[in-house]
Design a protein that fits this description.
With 223 residues, the protein is mainly alpha-helical. It is built from 11 helices and no strands. Helices cover 58% and strands 0% of the residues. The chain binds iron/sulfur cluster (SF4).
């Protein structure tokens, strides 16, 4: 592990919030919102989730029974709504039939995390990042979410000419963070905070960034 990576993890641990970063009143709502934020902004994903809630469809049984045309109309603001409606339908059915029943309660999943991940990835429309978000925030499994934010921060931190592939990033950070899901939640929350507040895709705000003292791309002098 590089010294820079170690310091980055320490800094992110220090800003960890008490409340989990991923919003949602129930595990199923969190899983649904993980689908709805795919390929859109958080604002639009949240709006679509709120629309589902207003339509009384944030319930796995009701969503599984709902007409996909109705789901499409409700989540239209999130984009790619036809595919997402189909994915939500499949997710709701899985949640009802196999999900929580097979894997234990979402607070205390009894199955191996690779088994749950495999099951989630077998649902058409759910890719690695969505599956990992559901694993971490719904099933409280220790997993590093290798998203575009982590790719960007890691690349800048180490001044890489191109970002690491997500599977490699996930392996490496998982090895560093260990198997405590709370640590993984705090790490992900810190990455999201830094990416949204300071390490923006265009024009990073290095002078305010908490990672400036360990980042090889920082545009401010090291202290
Ligand atoms: S110091 Fe600058 S480049 Fe490095 S992580 Fe922070 S905002 Fe990004």
């Amino acid at each position: 592990m590089s010294a820079n990576t170690r310091r980055m993890i320490e800094h992110l641990g220090r800003i960890a919030r008490e409340t989990p970063w991923w919003p949602g009143e129930t595990p199923f709502e969190i899983a649904v919102s993980a689908v709805l934020v795919q390929r859109t902004t958080w604002t639009q994903g949240k709006k679509a989730t709120d629309n589902l809630k207003a339509a009384n469809l944030l319930d796995s049984r009701l969503l599984a029974m709902a007409n996909t045309n109705d789901i499409e109309q409700t989540i239209a603001c999130s984009g790619f709504y036809r595919q997402k409606a189909q994915t939500l339908h499949r997710l709701a059915k899985w949640w009802l039939v196999d999900g929580v029943a097979d894997f234990g309660s979402t607070q205390e999943a009894t199955a191996d995390k690779s088994e749950i991940r495999y099951a989630l990835l077998s649902i058409k429309g759910i890719g690695p990042e969505t599956a990992d978000s559901i694993l971490l925030y719904c099933f409280r499994q220790s997993v590093v979410i290798a998203d575009a934010y982590l790719q960007r921060i890691d690349a800048r931190l180490h001044r890489r000419s191109r970002p690491c592939a997500k599977p490699r990033l996930q392996r490496e950070y998982q090895r560093l963070l260990g198997e405590d899901s709370n640590v993984c939640v705090a790490f992900h929350a810190g990455i999201v905070d830094v990416a949204q507040q300071y390490c923006k895709s265009k024009g990073p705000l290095c002078s305010s960034c908490i990672l400036a003292d360990c980042c090889l791309s920082a545009t401010v002098p090291k202290q």
